[in-house]
Amino acid sequence: MIGISYNTALVLAGVALLGGAAGVIGCFAVLRRRGLLGDALAHACLPGICLAFLLAGERNFHVLLLGAFLSGLVGIGVLTALKSHTRLKEDAAIAIVLSVFYALGVVLLTAISHGPGGVNRAGLESFLLGQAASMQFADLRLIIGLTLGTLLLVVLLYKEFKLVAFDPAFARVQGWPALALDLALQLMLVLAVVVGLPAVGVLLMAALLVIPAAAARFWTDRLGYLLFLSGGFGMLAGMMGTYPSARGENLATGPLVILAAALLFLISLALGSSRGLVRRWLRQRGYQNQVQKQQLLDALFRFPQAPVPESALRERLHWPARRLAYWLRHGQKEGVLVRGVGTVQLTPIGRDRAVDYQARKEHWQALLLRHPQEVPALLRLDLPPPDPGLGTEVDSPSLNGRGQP
Amino acid sequence: MILLAQAYSPEYLAFWTIAIGGTCAAACSLLGCFLLLRRMSLLGDALSHGILPGIALAVMVTGTLTGPVLFLGAMAFGLLTALLAQVLNHQGGVSEDASLGVVFTSLFALGVLLITRFLRHVEVDTHCIFFGLLDGVAFNPTTYFGWEVPEAYPTQALTFLLALGFILLFWKELKLSTFDPALAGAMGFRPGLMHFLLIALVAGTTVSAFAVVGSILVLAMLIVPPATALLLTDRLAPMLAWAAGLAFSAAALAYWLASPTMLASTMAGMMAVVSGAQLLLAVLFAPRHGVLARLVRRLRLSLRIAIEEVLASLYRREEGAPTALENEFRSHGLSHWLTRLAFWRLRRARLIRADQDGTYHLTPPGRDRALEVVRAHRLWESFLNRHFDLPPDHLHAPASRVEHFIGPQLRGELARQLDQPATDPHGRVIPPGESPSS
Known about the structure:
The complex is a heterodimer of chains A (405) and B (438).
Chain A: H1 6-31, H2 37-56, H3 61-85, H4 90-112, H5 121-129, H6 137-156, H7 158-166, H8 168-173, H9 178-216, H10 223-246, H11 253-271, H12 277-302, E1 308-309, H13 310-317, H14 321-334, E2 337-339, E3 343-346, H15 348-370, H16 375-381
Antiparallel strand pairs in A: 1-3, 2-3
Chain B: H1 2-5, H2 10-37, H3 41-50, H4 52-62, H5 68-90, H6 96-118, H7 127-131, E1 141-144, E2 147-150, H8 153-169, H9 171-179, H10 181-186, H11 191-213, H12 215-232, H13 236-258, H14 267-285, H15 291-319, H16 325-331, H17 336-348, E3 352-354, E4 360-362, H18 364-387, H19 396-402, H20 408-417
Helix pairs in contact in B: 2-3, 2-8, 2-11, 2-12, 2-13, 3-5, 3-6, 3-12, 4-5, 4-6, 5-6, 5-11, 8-11, 11-12, 12-13, 12-14, 13-14, 15-17, 15-18, 18-19, 18-20
């Protein structure tokens, strides 16, 4: 372990904690399909910062933060108003708040520096990209406060947030203050953005609010784990991104943290245990194998004469030779078929299985014919073939209201 | 750059700055209309950030911040952004907004890293990536076909013409695939290809615009004028015209506002702010969809309902029913001042008159109006009574909500269906209506 200076440790802790808090808050935004709301609110803070600078006159840190916070609140208000009182949709409202507020900030900033091309372009660039290296203890204190506050709020209002995140309409019908809870979630977003802005800038803040949550989504379908994982990913990305600059290599912290998060995202995309590509490929493969096994048994069963020539079997199945050879070997091992010289025959076990499969298939057909309107739902549910003993009036979960669109 | 530009006359500067800014904004707005209608507004945001690595790479190769290599590099990364986001969305199962967010922040970070790591020694004004050059648009006059125009103008004009040409050429395909992609696909119009072409054009426009207005303000030009236009009209062609016109006027207004004698500010930022102000005005005062217009519509409806309530109550009192007017109105959620306004309007129209002791009475024309309302009310009660299994004391409330929306034609229809009933379920007389003709 290399020795790290006090300042480096401070930056490391600050960025990691911020990543954790943003990861947790970002989950709710991503679940509500507002992944870019954080981006918009971060941009919306600029005019507030500029106004605070104009009013307070000097670079008073707390006044600037307050300005950013109020400006973010106004941003949320404008967004909500545009969404609910005009015919504009949420994505347009987000884009409008982002760009117009930011432009207002740029105009104010040039007004501060008296004319275009002034000194404050550097200030604006640090607003966009952040200056993690110059993080102070006061920043860290704020970040710790934010993290604790976020965790406390999420623990206290876990059930309510969950409901609003997944089904706001149902929450409203059940009598929960859905709008207030929604605003509370957005308020947490603003707080995180305001606290994070001086340290890591607009873009890193936007990234930390989206990428960890999107990455965690590949691993789990449960909200509790999702929050935990997303927070963990955010922290990890913060540490991974800060470490190279802590080693003294001359690299900006913000972009590195984003790229570290992107790396975690890519790993999750590939290996995620719930929706990862490998996992989904394996699942699809398993299903394909099952279908091919059944197709082979079915084809053998339907031939009129008992030992079936392999060539005739191949013709009927339209399979490549290797696939047929593989499944014939597999079937022999399982004891469902025996092979002669260029011929194949079902064993009694294989015959039983084929009959069973036949019955299930006919049953499915009857079921789908009787409930054609349920076909999409039944297919989506990916049910195992029903037991023929049940009759065609099967109480499938979809008929009981689950899995309905 | 400003010093350099002062060699030209103010009129020349004003004309060309507005022309360049306005043309650029109009091109963005034309395409932005389709982004807005397809709910792809945030793609503009993603594209304008995602092109940064392309720009950085191009600058690393060529060493300048202009030229075709830069355009191609930026264009390539713009398409890559859109493509990656789409793959993540479709194949990876990530929601649309999150996939955009993941892709563009990552690419942007890559771009910043490239710039800070490798371009520190190259003399590049990276600020223009964020803010654009409009204030000091390259004014090196170049001659095209005998016309002397600033260097930056032909690119913008070309972009605008490309966008316009694309829209005109593929008008029906774009329209159909925007409003009903499933139908467009079924009719063989290839909405996927339209989608791709649109994204490619937006990427190209973004690249040519970012040099003028900067990366984030491109988003404002793409979305804000179309959003304003959407509030002003319900048809696609006028929407496009409005959007382009608003964008151009925003440029002109912004030039004036940003001039040193006014606010002395950056023109690109001011263009976005002016567009935002235009949107605000449209939100408030748009003829059909504006807040004010809807408020007036609601007030007029409330007033009509209040007037009809007053008339009906007076009629019921004439019939001998003990109605307390005030309670009646409060139960309908009509506020005090609205009721008073209704009485004032009724008196002025001579539909009611006041006695010496202050009680109100219907005048003959007033009674005619009251009859219509009461007839509608009682016909609806009868209808409910016949067709729905409701207890008699549950008939009044729904009827008194619906009575204001039953016109003469529907009253005739109801009466015919109910075989011209003489009394309602409570045994009260249904006023005979208009002659049951037609």
